[in-house]
TrEMBL record:
<dbReference type="InterPro" id="IPR036390">
    <property type="entry name" value="WH_DNA-bd_sf"/>
</dbReference>
<comment type="similarity">
    <text>Belongs to the LysR transcriptional regulatory family.</text>
</comment>
<keyword id="KW-0238">DNA-binding</keyword>
<keyword id="KW-0804">Transcription</keyword>
<feature type="domain" description="HTH lysR-type">
    <location>
        <begin position="1"/>
        <end position="58"/>
    </location>
</feature>
<dbReference type="Pfam" id="PF03466">
    <property type="entry name" value="LysR_substrate"/>
</dbReference>
<dbReference type="InterPro" id="IPR005119">
    <property type="entry name" value="LysR_subst-bd"/>
</dbReference>
<keyword id="KW-0805">Transcription regulation</keyword>
<dbReference type="InterPro" id="IPR036388">
    <property type="entry name" value="WH-like_DNA-bd_sf"/>
</dbReference>
<dbReference type="InterPro" id="IPR000847">
    <property type="entry name" value="LysR_HTH_N"/>
</dbReference>
<dbReference type="InterPro" id="IPR050950">
    <property type="entry name" value="HTH-type_LysR_regulators"/>
</dbReference>
<dbReference type="Pfam" id="PF00126">
    <property type="entry name" value="HTH_1"/>
</dbReference>
<protein>
    <submittedName>
        <fullName>LysR substrate-binding domain-containing protein</fullName>
    </submittedName>
</protein>
Length: 306
């Protein structure tokens, strides 16, 4: 078994077939098939069920996916560790983050990281559901993850980030005094624009309104997070957003109001226990220093529409 065979194996898993994997890897299909047959002989079992024009994983193939991802990441870490002797002169850092955390604090952290290590590329992935972040880090798809998550997940180390406050964001012209906080329970009386169940925004709203004995009325549900502010500006409903996004909405005419009690949720940066790549280690240390220097959440809110 070698690195090339595992790389070919994972490409077939990800693309669903030998032909598409060959195109992605720019490898002739006979060479790809030969490498997989050699891997199957070495392991003593088939890894794929041939299903017409596609393939499916056998039980053995399913069992190999996670270790294969980790082996390839270990290869990359080993290479990066050698290169780190001369400084972070290249490579890539993969991060998975909730959309709200990708805006703040991740965007600023990446900016500072890239200023110090301009030859390291950063890829940020947006999970389909918020609870997918932990799995993507555990499975080796991404080296770092940012999510609303408790610490102490087996197999993961973590750094707790500052709490993130959400603000009520109302359509332009709403008869609300932005200088006075809105009661969380009052949000139950608004038609809301929200992401689906299982996302951080929806979980926060459902949880906090539930504590008030109320249920949200989600009038517009969308997976297109970039559409939320335009929907609010168009009068489709109200929403809740973290400071950076709320500030942007206020600048475009929305009425932004703090809530009482404050809508706050925690956040962590997580990674697999054990050795980190030099790039990931540098990023974690940057975040650690950054969080000790930042003021607590809520000391400065977004600019509010008059």
């Amino acid at each position: 078994m070698d690195r090339r065979q595992l790389e070919y194996f994972l490409a077939i898993v990800q693309t669903g077939g030998f032909t598409s994997a060959g195109r992605r890897l720019r490898v002739a299909q006979p060479s790809l098939s030969q490498a997989i047959r050699a891997l199957e002989r070495d392991l003593g079992t088939p890894l794929f069920d041939r299903l017409g024009r596609g393939v499916g994983l056998t039980a053995a193939g399913e069992a190999l996916v996670r270790p294969a991802k980790q082996v390839l990441r270990d290869f990359a870490t080993a290479r990066a560790s050698v290169e780190s002797v001369l400084g972070l002169t290249g490579g890539r850092l993969d991060i998975v983050a909730l959309t709200t955390l990708a805006v703040d604090p991740l965007a600023a952290l990446i900016g500072r990281f890239r200023a110090a290590h301009e030859r390291v590329d950063v890829r940020v992935t947006d999970p389909e559901l918020d609870n997918a972040v932990t799995g993507m880090v555990l499975e080796g798809d991404c080296e770092l993850g940012l999510a609303e998550s408790p610490g102490g997940v087996e197999g993961l180390d973590h750094l707790r980030l500052r709490d993130q406050e959400f603000f009520a964001v109302l359509p332009p012209g709403s008869a609300i005094d932005p200088a006075h906080p809105i009661e969380v329970a009052e949000l139950a009386g608004w038609a809301l624009v929200s992401t689906p169940e299982g996302t951080a925004m929806r979980t926060l709203v459902d949880r906090e309104l539930g504590r008030c004995g109320a249920a949200p009325r989600v009038a517009v549900e969308t997976t297109h997070r970039a559409a939320i502010v335009p929907l609010v500006l168009a009068g489709a409903g109200a929403t809740v957003l973290p400071p950076r996004l709320a500030e942007d909405a206020a600048g475009r005419g929305a009425v932004v109001v703090p809530t009482t009690p404050r809508l706050v949720h925690g956040a962590v940066m997580m990674w697999r226990s054990g050795q980190l790549s030099p790039a990931a280690r540098a990023f974690v240390e940057l975040a650690r220093l950054d969080e000790t220097a930042l003021p607590p959440a809520g000391t400065a809110g977004p600019t509010r529409s008059p």
